[in-house]
Amino acid sequence: MNGLLDQKPLDLRDAERRLLALGRRTHELIGLGLVLAAVAAFTVVVDPSGPGVPIAIGAVSAFGLAALRRADRRKLLAQLVVQGDALAITEVKLYAQQLTTARERRRLADGLRMAVASVGQGAHVTVMVNAPRVDDFAPRLLGIAEAISDQAVSFNPQALALCGQMLHDPMRSPLCNPHVPERELPRILELVERGRVSSA
Question: Cα(43)–Cα(40) distance, rounded to whole angstroms?
Answer without folding.
Answer: 5
